Amino acid sequence: MRPDPDFLSKLEVRLGECVALSQDPALYRAPWLARAAEQGSVEAQLLYAIDVRTAVGASSAAELAEREEDVLAWRETSLRYLHALADGGNVEALSGLQSVHESGYRTVKDPVAAYAYGQVLQRLSPTFWSDALLAQSRQALSLDQQRMAAEQAEAIYRRCCMLPRSGD
Question: How high is the mean pLDDT of the chain?
Fold first, then answer.
């Protein structure tokens, strides 16, 4: 097999096209993160869920405040991404959902769900969620809430982390 004698010149032309594209300011204002997340990039979906300003395309907190509809759409979409990734066993998404339910930032504050996600993280590895953090979360819950959280944790664990058995 012979090498293409025009390979280097073709490569040079392509690199020139890329340079021109990377210098286009419109590229940086485009909804690149949302597009990459929609296309299924796990990294983009995680970043989308974390970085509302980049996801929405707002350059400042003031601009973000003016774009309430976009922020509401971001909240729904980011939760959808986190749930889908968590169901696939992504530990960062599980941790994100624990944090979301604990803080109530994107959804109603839910200490039972936060504790359930903490239990799953701890079950996966104590390095993900320590006994001390789990105990701290548990203290704020009644015995009924602790039982509910245990049931939720088992359901989450089954969705995210168990391989289906043959015949299931």
Answer: 87
